[in-house]
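We store amino acids, tokens; thus:
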Amino acid sequence: MAGSRNKLLIPGIEQYLDSIKYEIAEEFGVQLGSNTASRSNGSVGGEITKRLVKHAQSELAGSQNQES
């Protein structure tokens, strides 16, 4: 992530995101790269976001259930 000003809060997250990116691309039949339509590349990014949000929601629900 050269040049990025974003600070990563979770060590090793870049490797995780790379692995899930290629896993999703394979599921969608998308060949990632500069020659791929931006819509196809974007569909992979959108799916990553959906899965991360779903995971966070289930984590939050689990922690709220433990507090009850």
